[in-house]
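Hi W.,

Here's what went into the run:
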Amino acid sequence: MRADAPALARPGVAVPFLISVALISGAVIAFQIAVMRVFSIANWAHFGSLVISIAMFGFGVVSAIMVIGKGWFERHWDACVAASLIAFGPLMALANTLAQTQTFNPILMISNPEEQERLFANFVLYFLPFVPGALFLGLVFLKGKASFGKVYFANMTGSGLGGLTILMSMYLVAPDSLLLVPLVLWFAGALVWFATARSRWPAIGLVAAGVVAVGIVASFQQINVSPFKGVSYARNFPDAERVYDAFGPLGRLEVYESSYFHFAPGLSDVAAFNLPSMPENAYLGMYMDSDGPIGIMKALEEGDSAYFRFLPMHQPFLLKDEPEVFVVQFGGGISTRVALAAGAQSVTVAEGNPMVLEAIGESEALRERTGNLLDDPRITVVPYDGRLYAPGVHDRFDVIDFSLADGTGLSSPGGFSIYEKYAYTRESMEAYMRALAPDGVLSVTLWNKEDPPKSVLRLFATLIAAAEAVAAEDGGDITNRFFVNHTYLSTVTVLFKRDGFTADEVAALNEHSRRMSFDVLYAPGTDFDTGDAEPVFQGIRDAYFDPQAAMADMDTGADLSATNIYRIALAAMMAGDGDGFAQSYLFRVPALTNDQPYFAAYLKTGDIPGFLGILESVSDEWGYLLLWATLAQSLIFGVILLLLPVVFGWRTVFAPQPGKVGILVYFMGLGLGYIVVEVGMISKFMLALTNPVVSASVLITGMLVFSGIGSLVSGRYLDISRRFLPKIFLGIAALLVLYMVILDPILEQIGLMAYPVRVLLCLLLIFPPAFLMGFPFATGMAWLARLEKEHFFLWAWGINGSFSVVGSVLVPLVAVHYGLDWVLGVAALAYLMALPAFFALLKPRPAAA
Amino acid sequence: MSRQQHSPLRIGRRTALGLAAATAALPGAFRRAWAQDDQTFDITTIERPPLSGRQAFIDFITSTRGDDAQMAGARWDRCQALIGNQDLWRDKEIEAFLLTPREIFALERNRARAYEHAFLDIGWGVTISGPHIVGRMTSALDCVPEDRVLEIGTGSGYQSAILSYLSAHPYSIEIIQPLSERTTATYGELAGGKFPEYGNIRTKAADGYFGWEEHAPFQKIIVTAAIDHIPPPLLQQLDVGGTMVIPVGPPGAQTLLKVGKVQEPDGTISITREDLYQGRRKVSFVPFTNAEGGTWSQ
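Here's what came out:
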């Protein structure tokens, strides 16, 4: 746009100005969420986060450029605003459309340079729309600096409501069209802005841009599913037919029918010689966001159910006749079918994903194919997570089954990312154990496709810690309460009997294991000859770091098989020496707790440099290592952004302004602290809200809106900031420390309530810290404006944004190593660090003095 | 005997039609190879490459097969890396590796990278496994010419091409029909030229879960698809004393599972599972294809 373009109205802090800021802010966050959805379905979600976090540096880059060219931007303010507003929409549409032609596959990322180029293309494409988005916000901040609290309020509230809008839209708008939501917000925001303009040309330009943007979205593919996603394979089956398709905030659920689906997780190898036939065409394949398949079992012919006995989930039923059964997660229904086939008197089955229940329970296509399974009079459905149901039940179930709850398997390629697995924590396991009848059996089956084992050892540690807690109440030791067996590189099953196994029961399980060809890893009263453990620990280390030494004694050396490692681990843990095992073992294998609910980060920190040389041997840890790389990268970017204005204008622009370092520390602290609380609490609140998408939406909306209100209120206290703001800082830190202690038990209680009540109570919990956290940024910015430190004003905004990215990466790293509680501790520290820096910020300019 | 008559009972109508079309599209030489079903090409007559040195190998392979000298050099170098990594250790597998032009089975755009320590995209979400895992699985099978070898997951055709130097009876099943057709056509072209041994490879587009019953038992079975259990039909079709090899686990942390079918002294049949290297080799194991999906994945 030419510099002499018609001047626009300058709305100051008029209501249309604020509405426009709010809508554009909403469009920015809605675009981020839409892109995340596109990545989840077409590719892998964590790459979406990476792309977004890099794109967010657009904010930092723009702020740095604006600091350097502040005079120019002020002279061309109207034109820049108009240009950025008009460009934002078409760039969003264009970026996503072009990115679909640049699909990349993470699996090939290391081996194929073209994949790296395509990932880079994604970075660049998604970066582009953030430039006009950030430019617009920077310009309005600059213009509205005198009433920064109000502008910031509009920005925060708009962002929060924008997030909520797109999440609600997911019920109505198909994923392919989701990009229309940020486009609508953008168009509305820009329209409000231009409505007050003296000239009509910008509005005409906007309408043209809107037509172009919608045209692009409507005409071109917006989600191009990678051929390496599970659903792409199903679509290639010659007889594949999609029998169900639904979408919502929790994702896209598709169910395919094909004779090519075969599931029998953990099936005994001897089934081949003992079964007259395997049930054919017995499964449907369920895909969530194109990932899967999870097998949904169809109704079987009478004679076909014999093969259930060859599945590991059948084992608890060897000990129980007509049991009352609780299945912790329905999944595809295999455990439920196993229980019914074994003669269960009743089956209570929980499923936390309403989309799965709706598909199987209500869709005619699936009801027919599954023989109306959920209508079976013996079945009671619990429509929320089993881990939340269990604490309300005591001494009731004869059998509790928790089998292969994760479709992708804990040890299959899901290891790229770090997810909270609350259903597997010590607290949840305790709840399952207490829900057992006094002589009831808990059966937990997990994939064990790792060698040397990692996740399964964490499961052992977790179950044994839970058993110790339960045993401490009813007395007695735990060594006669476990029976563990596995099939190498298939599944492992842990049976826990609350009052201990009798000798007859152990004999029966041993005999069954023998017949099924399952290797027994632990049985009460059996001492396995595991040999000396030390050479085993050394051998595993050598296998990675000194393969020649490891291979040298292949036929004569220690038994490094997974079976032997499991036996060594279980013997040590049962003898109370789990810590000794954990210290000696190559990988980190602590128990999962609600504070550290992760099957991830197995590398001990001291070994990471060694593993960097043999990365391909630990590619299941790449997600974790990628976090360290991202942290390093975001720190480097952050420092570059800090330095840019310094290099270009420190002497001329900043020289007369005291308190530089203080201002830097202040906004770094706020940027870090705020995002660490937000991201950390998204993980925490899943305890009560169970679903990551809901948790994210409640937290994003709640935090931003409440902080927006805080920033608005902060304007009233500007004149007494010197006295008032320290109290706010101390209040924030005190609240965060308090939350470290009290949040878990409160969230666990909230988790037992009706869902709307849960959301409401979670919002109430978010309010106090979020409200207070709205004060420091707005107050700091307002004082920079008041003291006419205008270059710092923009710089501070950029620093805050850059260190937000650093903080969001820091959260999972702190969480996996120190726990989620300490995430809040880190945030409290960041705010306390910013407190003294506030006084530096208040130092007046020499000229003003 | 025509190929359709070979088709197993379980093959679907659509698949059979697809096969008919594929067969019709095959070059003449390959159709003849199929027509002479009982006359397999005698692989013991294949001239073996010299293992004495790089140049000697390049001279041999360029003169006998007309291979590109640069590619031959890259093949030799990768082969040395496989030997150093203990992925290949017997001469017969080393020779098979050296005789197989991996670059021909790669897509045009990936040919220059054929001998990199990497797997390569071949479309339909499928890749050619990296040379190290191919070498290791081939070594683990320890084929002899009389073995009937079944491969589940034909893919690019590279693995069965290697096997065709070690066994005169390789069978290979691919689930993705167009891929199967493409690879079958590739074998046809090569068999009609300087690679008559590829005429021994029998392929079909079908669900490998059910094996290939009418050619059972197989002394060796090699599976290259992600699985949640070993398909019982494959265990049934594995000969007593036979070996099945399957890579299991997340990409990069995979373990080569060696499955044995053993007859106990009392006559009962049992299945053994072991890691080929007894937990001692974890390094440089290239992730393989299809780990995120596939027929039997979770």
